Amino acid sequence: MSRSDLAGRLAISKAGMTAIVRDLLERGLVEEKELIRRQGRPAVRLCLKASAASLIGVSLQSDPVRVVLTDLRGEVLRSVHVQRHLEITACCDSLAEAVQKIQENLPDDIGPVMGIGVAQPGFVSRDRRICLASTVFGWKDVNVADPLSERTGFPVRIENDANVLALGELLFGEYAEERTHFSLVCLADGVGSGHVLGGRLQHGAHGGAGEIAHSPLVLDTADALPCRCGNRGCLETISSLKAMQGAARLAGLPEDIHLLSDVAMKGDPGALRILHRGAGALGLALAQMVQMLDPEQVIVALPEPLRAGLFGIVLKQEVERHVLRRAGQQVELILRDLPPDAFAVGAASLAAYRFLHGADPE
Ligand SMILES: [Zn+2]
Questions:
Q1: Do 179 and 324 belong to one domain?
Q2: Fewer beta carbons within 10 Å, N or C terminal of the chain?
Q3: In a domain, 302, yes or no
């Protein structure tokens, strides 16, 4: 935006805005781009300078752990992989080594590292330092941020993995400037979702907002599959990659999701049933979510063969079938790939948010 557009948006005087921009230019946080030609005097477009700072994002979601260095726009500049340890001292030791390694011989055009964000499954405390509970890791009240901060010297914040994807979308995403109400759902080994309402990431009272994996999807639980949470018939037991792979194994079908999708495309009734059921259950869960939150967009990040094949088609149909039609207010459902670095880049957005706003997301 130009100085005068910014002044209008922030409701401050043009002189005041000019002084603020001068300060930001001197600090190297903002840069001047091309002239915007329109009625009256042409204006200079101002832009956040992506190289003003860099951030480190860590995804504990996968083993090996992914650690990335990004600029202020979420562009990955470097990445390293380290073995995952679930014992917290060993975990922080190996992460600190990776943080050290990723900063070695940084060229001058890469901005100074301003913080670390960590993405992990489970519930996280409101101050984003402590993992309150993670069934996947077997963690309960584990302080991750402070020991890592002590070892690296950087501020560290942690957040649920689906939530960092949503925050990454808010800060780095394609529509970041105009979109304020959206939900992001990711389908991987588990199922997760994060919600941004009114431009704010929703954390919930206990860090559990958006935990759709354990939404009950079956009325009669007697025949339903047991879930690792102790209940039966949760969404995760039907629609997660692990659940569909388990069903394929039992049916003597290929477990690899690419191969399973191929077999379904060729008309195998067993493979069709597994993908149909998985997509149908996820569609129901998304429909309920849309009814409750009324987002502008629902973004579903999932592996490519599921997005492009039968699973994606059934998912879209199922959401459409169950979502109330409101005149002119159709929710947009976007299916998208889940790149391997997505969680680590989302984690970096947590550090970027803190750097840009001087505070954590609420
Ligand atoms: Zn469950």
A1: yes
A2: C
A3: yes
CA 255 to ligand 1 centroid distance, Å: 22
Provide CB contacts within 8 A for 344, sequence distance 6+: 57, 58, 59, 66, 67, 68, 79, 119
User: What is the Å distance from ligand 1's center to 358 Cα?
Assistant: 37
We report the CATH number of the domain holding residue 180 as 3.30.420.40
Is residue 175's pLDDT more than 80?
Answer: no
**91 lies in some domain:** yes
Asked, for residue 362, whether it belongs to a domain, the answer is no
Q: Same structural domain for residues 120 and 178?
A: no
Average pLDDT over residues 19-45: 90
Is residue 187 domain-shared with residue 114, that is, in the same domain? no
Neighbours of ion ligand 1 (CB under 5 A): 214, 227, 229, 231, 234
- Domain containing residue 139: 53-169+342-357
Residue pair 61/350 in contact (Cβ under 8 Å)? The answer is no
In terms of domains, do 196 and 300 share one? Answer: yes
Decide if 87 is inside a domain: yes
Q: How far is the CA of 4 from the centre of ligand 1 (A)?
A: 52
pTM (two decimals): 0.90
Let me know whether 118 and 211 are in one domain: no
The answer to whether 96 and 88 are in contact (CB under 8 A) is no
Buried b (16+ CB within 10 A) or exposed e, 225-260: eebeeeebbbbbbbbbbbbbbebbeeeebbeebeeb
Tens-place pLDDT, residues 285-334:
999 999 888 899 999 999 988 998 899 999 999 998 888 666 556 788 99
Measured in angstroms, how far is the CA atom of residue 216 from the centroid of ligand 1? 8
Query: In whole angstroms, what is the distance from residue 278 CA to residue 240 CA?
Result: 7
Find the 99 Cα to ligand 1 centroid distance in Å: 34
| One domain for residues 177 and 321 | yes
pLDDT digits (tens, 9 = 90+) for 48-99: 999 999 999 999 988 999 999 999 999 999 999 999 999 999 999 999 999 9
Q: Compute the distance from residue 202 Cα to the ligand 1 centre, in Å.
A: 21
Between the CA of 162 and the centroid of ligand 1 the distance, in Å, is: 16
Three-state secondary-structure class, residue 190? coil
Residue 98 shares a structural domain with residue 200: no
- Quote the ligand 1 centre to 225 CA distance (angstroms): 10
Is the pLDDT reported for residue 251 higher than 60? yes
Cβ proximity of 284 and 277 under 8 Å: no
213 CA from centroid of ligand 1 (Å):
6
